[in-house]
Amino acid sequence: MPPTLITPRLILRAHTAADFPACCTLWADPEVTRFIGGRPSTREEVWSRILRYAGHWQLLGYGYFFATTRDTGAVVGEFGLADFHREIMPSFGDTPEAGWAMLPHYQGKGLAYEALAAILAWADQSMPRTVCMIDPANTASLSLAGKLGYAQYAGTTYKDHATLLFERRRGA
After folding, report:
1. Which residues contact 55 (CB under 8 A, 6 or more apart)?
2. In this model, does residue 172 exceed pLDDT 80?
3. 3-state class of 46 per DSSP?
4. If you average pLDDT over residues 139-166, what whole number do you get?
5. Which domains are assigned to the chain?
Protein backbone atom coordinates (compact mmCIF):
# COMPACT_ATOMS: atom_id res chain seq x y z
CA MET A 1 0.00 0.00 0.00
CA PRO A 2 1.57 3.32 -1.04
CA PRO A 3 1.91 5.80 1.82
CA THR A 4 0.41 9.26 1.86
CA LEU A 5 2.98 11.83 2.91
CA ILE A 6 1.91 15.17 4.36
CA THR A 7 4.27 18.15 4.38
CA PRO A 8 3.54 21.67 5.63
CA ARG A 9 2.15 22.67 2.21
CA LEU A 10 1.59 19.44 0.26
CA ILE A 11 -0.23 16.13 0.19
CA LEU A 12 1.72 13.41 -1.64
CA ARG A 13 -0.26 10.31 -2.56
CA ALA A 14 -0.40 7.54 -5.13
CA HIS A 15 -2.03 8.32 -8.47
CA THR A 16 -5.57 7.24 -9.25
CA ALA A 17 -7.38 6.96 -12.58
CA ALA A 18 -9.21 10.18 -11.67
CA ASP A 19 -5.87 12.04 -11.85
CA PHE A 20 -5.60 11.40 -15.60
CA PRO A 21 -6.92 14.83 -16.75
CA ALA A 22 -4.62 16.71 -14.37
CA CYS A 23 -1.65 14.58 -15.44
CA CYS A 24 -2.48 15.31 -19.08
CA THR A 25 -2.34 19.03 -18.28
CA LEU A 26 0.99 18.62 -16.49
CA TRP A 27 2.66 16.56 -19.22
CA ALA A 28 1.26 18.70 -22.06
CA ASP A 29 3.08 21.78 -20.75
CA PRO A 30 6.19 22.49 -22.86
CA GLU A 31 7.99 23.98 -19.85
CA VAL A 32 7.45 20.76 -17.87
CA THR A 33 8.73 18.55 -20.67
CA ARG A 34 11.52 20.82 -21.89
CA PHE A 35 14.18 18.72 -20.12
CA ILE A 36 12.11 15.53 -19.88
CA GLY A 37 11.83 14.10 -23.36
CA GLY A 38 11.87 17.52 -25.00
CA ARG A 39 8.24 17.53 -26.13
CA PRO A 40 4.76 17.45 -24.58
CA SER A 41 3.35 13.99 -23.95
CA THR A 42 0.29 12.60 -25.68
CA ARG A 43 -2.73 11.43 -23.69
CA GLU A 44 -1.73 7.86 -24.51
CA GLU A 45 1.77 8.42 -23.13
CA VAL A 46 0.37 10.01 -19.96
CA TRP A 47 -1.98 7.08 -19.39
CA SER A 48 0.94 4.66 -19.79
CA ARG A 49 2.93 6.74 -17.31
CA ILE A 50 0.16 6.48 -14.70
CA LEU A 51 -0.03 2.72 -15.22
CA ARG A 52 3.75 2.45 -14.79
CA TYR A 53 3.48 4.38 -11.53
CA ALA A 54 0.85 1.94 -10.24
CA GLY A 55 3.03 -0.97 -11.33
CA HIS A 56 6.00 0.40 -9.43
CA TRP A 57 4.03 0.49 -6.20
CA GLN A 58 2.63 -2.99 -6.80
CA LEU A 59 5.88 -4.69 -7.82
CA LEU A 60 8.61 -2.69 -6.08
CA GLY A 61 6.99 -1.02 -3.08
CA TYR A 62 7.93 2.47 -4.21
CA GLY A 63 6.87 4.81 -6.98
CA TYR A 64 5.70 8.28 -7.86
CA PHE A 65 3.48 10.53 -5.79
CA PHE A 66 0.79 12.87 -7.09
CA ALA A 67 1.27 16.19 -5.29
CA THR A 68 -1.49 18.65 -4.40
CA THR A 69 -1.55 21.68 -2.15
CA ARG A 70 -2.96 21.17 1.33
CA ASP A 71 -4.90 24.41 1.35
CA THR A 72 -6.71 24.26 -2.01
CA GLY A 73 -6.06 20.78 -3.39
CA ALA A 74 -4.51 22.28 -6.52
CA VAL A 75 -2.27 19.97 -8.53
CA VAL A 76 1.43 20.80 -8.18
CA GLY A 77 3.14 17.93 -9.98
CA GLU A 78 4.64 14.48 -9.57
CA PHE A 79 7.62 13.41 -7.48
CA GLY A 80 9.00 10.03 -6.65
CA LEU A 81 11.22 7.05 -7.22
CA ALA A 82 11.25 4.56 -10.08
CA ASP A 83 13.15 1.81 -11.80
CA PHE A 84 12.75 2.37 -15.53
CA HIS A 85 15.46 -0.15 -16.52
CA ARG A 86 17.11 2.62 -18.51
CA GLU A 87 19.60 1.62 -21.15
CA ILE A 88 22.28 3.92 -19.83
CA MET A 89 25.95 3.57 -18.97
CA PRO A 90 26.94 3.49 -16.24
CA SER A 91 23.87 1.47 -15.33
CA PHE A 92 21.68 2.38 -12.38
CA GLY A 93 21.30 -1.33 -11.66
CA ASP A 94 18.47 -1.79 -9.20
CA THR A 95 19.03 1.58 -7.49
CA PRO A 96 15.83 3.66 -7.33
CA GLU A 97 15.88 6.76 -9.53
CA ALA A 98 14.41 9.98 -8.17
CA GLY A 99 12.46 12.20 -10.51
CA TRP A 100 10.19 15.21 -10.48
CA ALA A 101 7.92 17.28 -12.70
CA MET A 102 5.90 20.26 -11.61
CA LEU A 103 3.71 22.89 -13.15
CA PRO A 104 5.58 26.14 -13.87
CA HIS A 105 3.24 28.18 -11.64
CA TYR A 106 4.60 26.36 -8.58
CA GLN A 107 8.29 26.41 -9.47
CA GLY A 108 10.69 28.55 -7.45
CA LYS A 109 8.64 28.35 -4.24
CA GLY A 110 10.50 25.53 -2.49
CA LEU A 111 7.70 23.01 -3.09
CA ALA A 112 9.86 20.57 -5.06
CA TYR A 113 12.40 20.53 -2.24
CA GLU A 114 9.62 20.06 0.31
CA ALA A 115 8.12 17.15 -1.62
CA LEU A 116 11.39 15.39 -2.35
CA ALA A 117 12.79 15.88 1.15
CA ALA A 118 9.72 14.07 2.50
CA ILE A 119 9.99 11.31 -0.09
CA LEU A 120 13.70 10.81 0.52
CA ALA A 121 13.18 10.73 4.30
CA TRP A 122 10.62 7.97 3.70
CA ALA A 123 12.99 6.19 1.28
CA ASP A 124 15.90 6.38 3.73
CA GLN A 125 14.08 3.83 5.89
CA SER A 126 14.82 1.08 3.34
CA MET A 127 16.99 2.44 0.52
CA PRO A 128 20.72 3.01 1.10
CA ARG A 129 21.18 4.91 -2.18
CA THR A 130 19.12 6.70 -4.82
CA VAL A 131 20.19 8.23 -8.12
CA CYS A 132 18.88 10.81 -10.55
CA MET A 133 19.73 12.05 -14.02
CA ILE A 134 19.56 15.68 -15.07
CA ASP A 135 20.04 17.55 -18.32
CA PRO A 136 23.16 19.76 -17.90
CA ALA A 137 21.13 22.81 -19.00
CA ASN A 138 18.47 22.30 -16.32
CA THR A 139 19.97 24.64 -13.74
CA ALA A 140 16.92 24.59 -11.45
CA SER A 141 17.02 20.78 -11.12
CA LEU A 142 20.80 20.80 -10.70
CA SER A 143 20.41 23.22 -7.81
CA LEU A 144 17.57 21.19 -6.28
CA ALA A 145 19.57 17.96 -6.49
CA GLY A 146 22.47 19.61 -4.66
CA LYS A 147 20.17 20.86 -1.88
CA LEU A 148 18.81 17.33 -1.49
CA GLY A 149 22.30 15.88 -1.04
CA TYR A 150 22.87 14.47 -4.53
CA ALA A 151 26.43 14.52 -5.85
CA GLN A 152 27.42 14.06 -9.48
CA TYR A 153 29.24 10.82 -10.19
CA ALA A 154 29.18 10.61 -13.99
CA GLY A 155 28.37 12.34 -17.22
CA THR A 156 26.93 10.27 -20.05
CA THR A 157 24.56 10.25 -22.99
CA TYR A 158 20.96 9.07 -22.85
CA LYS A 159 18.88 8.87 -26.03
CA ASP A 160 21.49 10.97 -27.87
CA HIS A 161 21.41 13.76 -25.26
CA ALA A 162 24.05 14.68 -22.71
CA THR A 163 23.00 13.95 -19.15
CA LEU A 164 24.56 14.09 -15.72
CA LEU A 165 24.18 11.29 -13.19
CA PHE A 166 23.89 11.94 -9.46
CA GLU A 167 23.74 9.78 -6.36
CA ARG A 168 22.59 10.31 -2.82
CA ARG A 169 23.40 8.07 0.13
CA ARG A 170 20.91 7.44 2.92
CA GLY A 171 20.64 10.37 5.28
CA ALA A 172 22.54 12.81 3.06
Report:
1. 63
2. no
3. helix
4. 97
5. 5-128 (3.40.630.30)
